[in-house]
Structures
1.
Amino acid sequence: MSTYAKSLTSAHKAFLADLFPGDDLILSPEGMAAFSTDASLERAMPWAVVRPDGREQIEELLRWAHAERMPVYARARGTGRVGNAVPVFGGVVVSMLKMDSVLAVDENDFVAVTQPGVITSDLQAACAAKGLYYPPDPASVKISSIGGNVSTCAGGLKAVKYGVTRDWVLGLEAVLPGGRVLQCGGRSHKDVVGLDLVRLFVGANGKLGLLTEIIVKLIPMPETSASVLVGFGDLHSSLAGANAVFQAGVLPAACEFMDKVTLQAVRQGGETIPLADSAEAALLFKVDGTEEGVAAEVRQIVKALEPLKPVSVETGRGDEEEAIWTIRRGISPAAFRIKPNKVAEDISVPRSKVAEAVDSAHEIGRKHGLTVLCFGHLGDGNIHVNIMHDAAISSEVEAAHKAKDEVFRLAVALGGTISGEHGTGLTKASFVSEQLSQEEIDTMVSIKQVFDPHSIMNPGKGW
Ligand SMILES: Cc1cc2nc3c(=O)[nH]c(=O)nc-3n(C[C@H](O)[C@H](O)[C@H](O)COP(=O)(O)OP(=O)(O)OC[C@H]3O[C@@H](n4cnc5c(N)ncnc54)[C@H](O)[C@@H]3O)c2cc1C
């Protein structure tokens, strides 16, 4: 068990004030409040917030923090949903947002080199300006940073075709506790020399060191895309439909599903949605590539689905494609038409187990007297399970949390994971041992000790 600094002494404050002049050191409670929470709404006050603008400051900071056993919490845009950036042990929050330059977009090497504080959609725009594409697309792409995305291994709608952040990081630079600088990987798209240290940092949630530079792989921008929204009379036909499409040899860029409860909630908004009223489940595909390829894939999808007798099929490109996606974008606000609060989980199971997972999640909801919405990234078995309840009614809160525990156990029992996207952070820390064996956890702890012997990096988050 590590022993940490108990507070920020006057000597600590003097050190930080010297290293971070002016506004780059925040010590006032009002100034620090915004850094005490993230999208999880978990909250804990730090003792200090610093805003480095370069690697040298970070090296000095981590030399000092290592010597002083000072907890260090990296923070980017604070959009994490499980409290990963929340400073539960106090200590120093390091805001990475001043390091926000795209350093290079290289159309010969097909890479981008970036500082971690760049908003991911800004990085994508810089790549697009040169006809290049960085595909990972978490729904938070316009509000989260590339450093946060790498540290959480963010994934999005297009993971089914393009993978998640881990599949795109070629190299990085990290400053480790003690001030050591580790540069690993590089611009080479292939590299099999030694252990893959780059991947250790992807999804490490700032527990190994602070990322100061990231190199990502790029591909040519797809020429065009199209979307197909398909309504089905029941959930099982829709899930069989997705299989039929994959078995027909189509790899869609996105393959989303929505269950009956989700569609009911969206319809209550009264907006026109391009889906038959009789549809009790829906699939939403996106395909991308060349004009001819996209047209052919749309035809293949429609043909593969025919035997499942869809009740409606709507295809769109350009503006029409956008109209089709409004149904998917409307889900989060629509859920609150059912109940004012939700416990939102992001389990992932093998694709063949999605139907069983969705049926069982509804059953768990019924058992606890609560409505459960299931929708999400069917292509990668990643199901958003929203357990709707009223937080003003304590029995509903208790029931929602019991239901959540059962949903986690269900995911693990089906050979899946308690989190496909958001990680475990604070809110799911106690469930990590339900999924990982003690052997796996011990190995992770040993690896962390190599990078961070005093465990000062993001402590208090489960392992
Ligand atoms: C509306 C909404 C939609 C979302 N949709 C998705 C989604 O589709 N897919 C998905 O995967 N997630 C999603 N998220 C979650 C969140 O956006 C991601 O986890 C994102 O990657 C966090 O990025 P951030 O810049 O906000 O990082 P933060 O939340 O500030 O930090 C996240 C973690 O990264 C660490 N970190 C940040 N920067 C560094 C650095 N430079 N060095 C080391 N560690 C660092 C922090 O310590 C923390 O552990 C969503 C969140 C919201 C609010």
2.
Amino acid sequence: MARRPTRLRSRPFAEALLEWYDANKRDLPWRRTKDPYAIWLSEVMLQQTTVKAVEPRWRRFLQRWPTLRDLARAPLADVLHEWTGLGYYARARNMHRAAVQAGDALPCSYSELLKLPGLGEYTAAAVASIAHGERVPLVDANAGRVLARVYTIGEEINSAAGKKKLRAHAEALVPAARPGDFNQALMELGAMICTPRDPSCPICPVATECAAFRSATQAQYPCIKAKEKMSGVREAAVVLRDADQRVLVLLRGSSGSFANMWELPRVVVEKDEEPPDAAVRAMRELADLRVKCGRELLVVRHTVMRSNITLHVVEASCVRIRKTIVPSRHVEARWVSLGEWGRLPKSITQERVRKALQRLNEE
Ligand code: SF4
């Protein structure tokens, strides 16, 4: 029988968890600072990126903009460029907006942090508890898995009801002393011991408090909805060069996906269309240019949200190249060398395309 949550002894739970954390935590650079700005940066970077990838990028970002004020004064284009390779650029845009709004320092309390752009419940709770010692719970996927098992939570953990339950349980457990360490310890336990498959229950510091362990039902928790099917999308991108062998790139507006990013003109290939025809249409619709399509230079496959995208990169030529292009859906058009494009903010996929074009040029 699973133990009822109300009977769980929060004090021994927190004590056992913190003792384990003190002896076993990974030595990560953001755990050696109490600077709210540096902690905020680590939390934002870690949301979609692995610890290994974040470590060098976190140091580099802080070397370039050591304080919140430095970040607020930096041009957004530089911040986005610095973010290249980390993906999910909305994180960088929001950080920059929040830095501008916050001024000299981040607010200290959870409720004030929540008012900044891009700071959701998770990030606000992380900064408030870790940097300022505020007693607020913090539930990421790792902590959620631990709690779902400890309390044998039957609700799907990403549903509104599931999240509410997780938060309520976490709130009851987080101690007044060392709330930031407790929150990190719960997430660390999920990352190191209470792993999705084959959790290491025999060495788990909270095994005696865990209902799933006691009923041998660990594999049934957390309850996760079956994944939605991925959809397949084809896109065509156009490489159009001027007389100086510069390529045409377009700047997306400041909202929507890939905002403020420079990219090759591209469109979704319609059902009854072939990529070269779509490339011709792309140039007509996006840049008011009549082009002829040449060979397909490369194909790049990538995933965005629930879509598997196949990007066909097609070469095109134009009899009358105009120096000035007025884009219809983008905010700016530029002719740039591949090297110049490298210094502009762009998505990971567009960077892959740029590097592949550079390699083709060198062959
Ligand atoms: S006892 Fe096992 S299932 Fe329960 S929290 Fe620990 S590792 Fe996870």
